[in-house]
Amino acid sequence: MKGIIVDDEARSRRLLQALCLEYCDGLEIIGLADSVSEAKKLIAQEMPDVVFLDIRMPIESGFELLKFYNNDFSFEVIFTTAYDEYAVEAFQFSAIDYLLKPIEIDELVKAVESVKELRNYSPQSEKFEFLQELLAAQKIEKIALTTTDGFTFVNHKDIIRCEAESNYTTVFLIDGTSHLITKTLGHFEKLLFEKDFFRIHKSHLVNLHTVRKFIKSKKGGLVETVDEIRIEVSSRKREELLERLSKLK
Known about the structure:
Layout: E1 2-6, H1 10-23, E2 28-33, H2 36-46, E3 50-54, H3 62-68, E4 76-81, H4 85-93, E5 98-100, H5 105-118, H6 125-136, E6 142-147, E7 150-155, E8 159-165, E9 168-173, E10 178-181, H7 185-192, E11 197-201, E12 204-207, E13 211-215, E14 222-225, E15 230-232, H8 238-246
Parallel strand pairs: 1-2, 1-3, 3-4, 4-5
Antiparallel strand pairs: 6-7, 8-9, 8-12, 9-10, 11-12, 13-14, 14-15
């Protein structure tokens, strides 16, 4: 897999190149660019599989590079950013790979592995348009779900529960549909914790606003959600669950 790095800071380019060389098997960094104009030339010459793209650059931002291709490009993108907390949340909800500066090795390896998986799918330009909408918005309501055949956008309030299936997660929606997502349940637990989702069992994450009933049992208990499904509650999660339910607005 061929990659290029686009960043206006020379030190950042060299550091990321060195990390890729040492830790990312199967990835060859074939070029470095310090601006959008240089990146356009390099992409035309080398046809990379992945572009590490800084967002905040003088003259033109990283988004301007993608707009140049009318959001229709043949390479995958991993954003590198020093954006604030709100913008990082937007990246997470748009399901776009990003690396927060200073870059951590584990996160770099994870992002590269994710790109390898996505190479079998068509370019996901809609996600970049969605990200730009999120960055411009004051409140994040929707989430991009990366499915086995592409991706879909849903309001997080419309998610009833998430159920683990090995390294995948099935997301059940209020309209009765479900989606098999190419992410672990742990990913959704971190992403949706602040949105009143709670992991009641090792295999289940529940939207607390969709819990209709708590049923006592000799173990942790059961919750019944609005779709009339009853799910076991881990005994060690019971007290925290009841506390969080009592604090719902």
